[in-house]
Amino acid sequence: MSESETPRPPVPQRKSSIDPQTASKLEKYLGQRPDKHELIDRNILKDDSVAPSLQAAKEKLQRSQLEDKLEHALQQRPKPEELVKEGILKETEAPPFSAPSMDNR
Fold first, then answer.
1. In a designed cystine with 78, which of 66, 71, 82, 100 is the match (CB 3.0 to 4.6 A)?
2. pLDDT tens for residues 37-69?
3. Is 56 within the bounds of a domain?
4. 83 contact partners, CB below 8 Å, separation of at least 6
5. Over pLDDT 70: what percentage of the chain?
6. Is residue 76 assigned to a domain?
7. How confident is the model at residue 103 (pLDDT cuts 50, 70, 90)?
8. Rounded distance, CA 60 to CA 82, Å?
9. How far is CA 71 from the centre of its chain?
10. Residue 98 lies in a domain
11. CA-closest candidate to residue 34, choices 25, 26, 44
Protein backbone atom coordinates (compact mmCIF):
# COMPACT_ATOMS: atom_id res chain seq x y z
CA MET A 1 0.00 0.00 0.00
CA SER A 2 1.18 3.49 -0.71
CA GLU A 3 1.28 6.24 1.87
CA SER A 4 -1.60 8.18 0.28
CA GLU A 5 -4.03 5.30 0.54
CA THR A 6 -5.79 4.77 3.83
CA PRO A 7 -6.75 1.27 4.77
CA ARG A 8 -10.43 0.53 4.30
CA PRO A 9 -12.40 -1.00 7.12
CA PRO A 10 -13.68 -4.50 6.44
CA VAL A 11 -17.16 -4.70 4.95
CA PRO A 12 -19.53 -6.14 7.53
CA GLN A 13 -21.35 -9.29 6.55
CA ARG A 14 -25.11 -8.91 6.51
CA LYS A 15 -27.40 -11.53 7.88
CA SER A 16 -30.48 -12.35 5.87
CA SER A 17 -33.63 -10.92 7.38
CA ILE A 18 -35.60 -14.01 6.30
CA ASP A 19 -34.92 -17.62 7.06
CA PRO A 20 -33.58 -19.93 4.30
CA GLN A 21 -36.85 -21.86 4.02
CA THR A 22 -38.80 -18.68 3.31
CA ALA A 23 -36.14 -17.53 0.85
CA SER A 24 -36.34 -20.80 -1.10
CA LYS A 25 -40.15 -20.63 -1.13
CA LEU A 26 -40.00 -17.08 -2.44
CA GLU A 27 -37.51 -18.06 -5.15
CA LYS A 28 -39.79 -20.93 -6.18
CA TYR A 29 -42.85 -18.65 -6.47
CA LEU A 30 -40.91 -15.97 -8.34
CA GLY A 31 -39.72 -18.61 -10.79
CA GLN A 32 -43.33 -19.65 -11.47
CA ARG A 33 -44.82 -16.19 -12.00
CA PRO A 34 -46.11 -15.38 -15.48
CA ASP A 35 -44.06 -13.22 -17.80
CA LYS A 36 -44.96 -9.65 -18.70
CA HIS A 37 -46.63 -10.51 -22.03
CA GLU A 38 -48.95 -13.04 -20.38
CA LEU A 39 -49.97 -10.46 -17.77
CA ILE A 40 -50.71 -7.95 -20.54
CA ASP A 41 -52.79 -10.57 -22.41
CA ARG A 42 -54.78 -11.26 -19.22
CA ASN A 43 -55.37 -7.49 -18.71
CA ILE A 44 -53.47 -7.48 -15.43
CA LEU A 45 -50.80 -5.12 -16.75
CA LYS A 46 -51.37 -2.35 -19.26
CA ASP A 47 -49.63 -2.45 -22.61
CA ASP A 48 -46.71 -0.06 -22.45
CA SER A 49 -46.27 0.42 -26.20
CA VAL A 50 -47.20 4.08 -25.70
CA ALA A 51 -45.14 6.59 -23.75
CA PRO A 52 -46.37 6.95 -20.16
CA SER A 53 -47.22 10.60 -20.75
CA LEU A 54 -49.63 9.55 -23.54
CA GLN A 55 -51.12 6.52 -21.75
CA ALA A 56 -54.02 8.44 -20.18
CA ALA A 57 -54.90 10.10 -23.49
CA LYS A 58 -54.80 6.72 -25.25
CA GLU A 59 -57.14 5.17 -22.67
CA LYS A 60 -59.54 8.12 -22.88
CA LEU A 61 -59.63 7.85 -26.68
CA GLN A 62 -60.25 4.09 -26.55
CA ARG A 63 -63.09 4.57 -24.06
CA SER A 64 -64.64 7.30 -26.18
CA GLN A 65 -64.46 5.09 -29.28
CA LEU A 66 -66.08 2.23 -27.37
CA GLU A 67 -68.88 4.50 -26.13
CA ASP A 68 -69.51 5.71 -29.69
CA LYS A 69 -69.59 2.14 -30.98
CA LEU A 70 -72.04 1.08 -28.27
CA GLU A 71 -74.27 4.12 -28.88
CA HIS A 72 -74.36 3.33 -32.61
CA ALA A 73 -75.20 -0.34 -31.93
CA LEU A 74 -78.03 0.66 -29.57
CA GLN A 75 -79.47 3.05 -32.15
CA GLN A 76 -79.46 0.27 -34.77
CA ARG A 77 -81.27 -2.14 -32.46
CA PRO A 78 -84.87 -2.84 -33.46
CA LYS A 79 -87.60 -1.24 -31.36
CA PRO A 80 -89.88 -3.49 -29.26
CA GLU A 81 -92.86 -2.67 -31.49
CA GLU A 82 -90.94 -3.94 -34.54
CA LEU A 83 -90.11 -7.17 -32.70
CA VAL A 84 -93.80 -7.67 -31.85
CA LYS A 85 -94.80 -7.08 -35.50
CA GLU A 86 -92.23 -9.65 -36.65
CA GLY A 87 -93.43 -12.19 -34.09
CA ILE A 88 -90.18 -12.26 -32.17
CA LEU A 89 -91.75 -10.84 -28.99
CA LYS A 90 -95.23 -11.37 -27.68
CA GLU A 91 -97.20 -8.26 -26.77
CA THR A 92 -97.23 -9.39 -23.14
CA GLU A 93 -93.41 -9.63 -23.10
CA ALA A 94 -92.77 -6.24 -24.71
CA PRO A 95 -92.41 -3.12 -22.60
CA PRO A 96 -95.32 -0.69 -22.89
CA PHE A 97 -95.13 1.31 -26.10
CA SER A 98 -94.61 4.99 -25.61
CA ALA A 99 -94.23 7.99 -27.84
CA PRO A 100 -90.62 8.60 -28.85
CA SER A 101 -88.91 10.79 -26.31
CA MET A 102 -87.24 14.05 -27.23
CA ASP A 103 -83.91 12.71 -25.94
CA ASN A 104 -83.42 10.34 -28.90
CA ARG A 105 -82.79 12.90 -31.60
1. 82
2. 999 899 888 877 888 888 889 889 999 999 999
3. yes
4. 89, 94
5. 87
6. yes
7. low
8. 36
9. 22
10. no
11. 44
Q: Residue 37 is part of which domain span?
A: 23-85
Rounded Cα gap, residues 80 and 49, in angstroms? 44
Does 35 reside within a domain? yes
pLDDT recorded at residue 34: 92
Q: How many CA atoms lie within 13 A of 99 on its CB side?
A: 1
Q: Examine the pLDDT at 4 and tell me if it is beyond 90.
A: no
Q: Torsion over CA of 55, 56, 62 and 66, rounded to 10 degrees?
A: 150
Helix (H) or strand (E) holding 18: none
The residues near 58 (Cβ < 8 Å, ≥ 6 apart) are 50
Tally the domains of the chain: 1
What is the number of residues in the chain?
105
